[in-house]
Specification:
The structure holds two protein chains of two kinds. By secondary structure, chain A is α+β, with helices and mostly antiparallel strands. Among the domains of chain A are: 80 residues, ApbE-like superfamily (T-fold), CATH 1.10.3980; 102 residues, Roll (T-fold), CATH 3.10.520. Chain A is 31% helix and 25% strand. In chain A, β8 and β9 form a beta hairpin. Chain A is globular. Chain B is α+β, with helices and mostly antiparallel strands. Chain B has one domain. Helices cover 30% and strands 31% of the residues of chain B. In chain B, a hairpin with a 3-residue loop joins β5 and β6. In chain B, α3 crosses α5. Chain B is globular and about 45 Å long. Chain B starts with a strand and ends with a helix. The chains are: A alpha+beta, B alpha+beta. Chains A and B meet through β1, β2, β7, β8 and β9 of A and β1, α1, β7, β8 and α5 of B. β8 of chain A pairs parallel with β8 of chain B. Chain A: InterPro entries: ApbE, ApbE-like_sf. Chain A: Its EC number is 2.7.1.180. Chain A: GO terms for molecular function: metal ion binding; transferase activity.
Amino acid sequence: MQTRCQPLLGTLVEITVPDAGAGAIDGAFAAIAQVQTRMSFHDEDSDLAMLRNAGPGEAVEVAPETLEVLGIALELHRNTNGLFDVTIGRELVRDGFLPQPEGPEASHCSGTSADIEIVDDRRVRCHEPMLIDLGGIAKGFAVDRAVAALEAAGVTEGLVNAGGDLRMFGARDWTVGLRDGDGKVRERIALADCAIASSANAGSSHRRQSRLFAPHFGAGRAPVAVPTRVSVIADRCVIADALTKVAIAAPASSQWIAASYGARILRESALEKAA
Amino acid sequence: MTRFTWASLFAVPVLAASSSAIAADYLTVAQAQHILVPQADAFAAFPVTLSPAQLTQIRQISGVPQRTAQPRVWRATSGGRLAGWVIVDEVIGKHEYITYATGISPDGHVLGVEILSYRESKGGQVRDVRWRSLFRGKTVRDKFKLNQDIPNISGATLSSRNITDGVKRLLAIHAVALAQVR
């Protein structure tokens, strides 16, 4: 096995493949870099920048990858009764988790995912001013793209880990350590041919003048602090990644939402009980 | 439907060492050189000593202080002609210590960034000089076993901000000390 690691998507991305497949790693990193280029909130050349700089109702041509992610995101928005919403860029900018980019001021944004329309197989239209942030889903999607690139290159097994959102393919069992909210790794599980993503915000949430600031949001777009880790296992990493946000936003209903995607939620405390 | 298999779900009492420290070694310097400048047929160590004025310039250009006056630079050549540069550098975060290699083209563009080694600790020993020098010694001599037990961790995202800043600093080193070299 060979593992390489590059700084991408604002984190460290590891790709592990058998030695015979090492030549495919560059292509897999390139697939991740493409997702980063098109879907970075910070990059003024990204599709997200084009969307926020377009006038309301104006159709914008985006990369096929961006279209696919938005399609998955809109479906999640419908299936979670609005809990999963990529227009959360407004709150993330307002609360200082993201910088205010060019385009509409966060305070002037009124749109939700219901105001995003996928026009055809190339174009997207936002009917209200909004700040789309794909931070809750693009990392998992990028992992899936990298796995697809490896498989297309004939690699039979491997693992792609983008800062804790990871997917493995092939027949092999992989041992995965689960990093808890306090940063420690207490449990390890063996997984094969699936994806797992984890979220916690103990390190980034805080209170100021009794108001909560956290990078995750629940019902009514209110910030949610979670001291413990939530992990989701699914067949695709994009779903695992997105469902960690749902699991944080709505602990109770997330169980059946996950089940409808064939996914499972593992919470820090639940695993301790399993032990 | 559900394709994932629960090969087993076990909660092993993880060794104390691995619960407090996570470490991974990815590539040797030589491996990284060939990945970053694949067309090069030779990589020669290129001793550089930055003057105080250059160190100031690097800080002004990159916004990040350059701590060592002697960066670890290799000149990559193809058939004797300059093909690029490889600089090996390290960044120290609050909880992590990362060695990485950056490939830079003769005209000052990033060709690629590869992480060589990663050390993480929640116990604060990242800033312990003895601990770091042990790690650095390993990296320099390439004596350690690569790709042994690299842990696959699902959890809190690690920021690569330090590395992004580090690469800016390396580009500034190129601008003030290497750009005129043929």
